[in-house]
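User: Sequence recovery, please. Input:
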C-alpha cells in the first residue's frame, strides 16, 4: 500500500474529502518522525512500536573503488510489530486455513 492509497482509504472510511485525509496522514507521519528525532519511542497498542537504535561508527568499503571509507555513527529507526499484529498477519486465510498448513 502506498501513501496515496492510505489517504484514499482514510478518505473513504471516514467519509471526508481527500485533502483533509491527506492532512491527517501527513500529520501522523510527521508526529512519528518528530518523536523519533527527539529520542522518544512510539507505541501503538495492538499495532507495534517505533524506536531508534544506535549504530556505531565503522570502516566500510566503496564498492566501486574498493577504497576504505569511514562510516559515521548514526541512529536507525526500526519497527517492532505487536503480538496482535503478528497474529492477524499470520492468522487464518480467507478459506479459514492457517498459513502453516499450506
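Assistant: Recovered sequence (102 residues):
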Amino acid at each position: 500500500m502506498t501513501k496515496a492509497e492510505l489517504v484514499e482509504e482514510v478518505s473513504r472510511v471516514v467519509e471526508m474529502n481527500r485533502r483533509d485525509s491527506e492532512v491527517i496522514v501527513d500529520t501522523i507521519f510527521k508526529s512519528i518522525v518528530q518523536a523519533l528525532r527527539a529520542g522518544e519511542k512510539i507505541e501503538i497498542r495492538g499495532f507495534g512500536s517505533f524506536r531508534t537504535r544506535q549504530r556505531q561508527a565503522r570502516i566500510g568499503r566503496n564498492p566501486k573503488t574498493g577504497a576504505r571509507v569511514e562510516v559515521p555513527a548514526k541512529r536507525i529507526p526500526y519497527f517492532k510489530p505487536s503480538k496482535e499484529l503478528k497474529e492477524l498477519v499470520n492468522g487464518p486465510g480467507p478459506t479459514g486455513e492457517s498459513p502453516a498448513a499450506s
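Residues 18-37 form the longest helix (20 residues).
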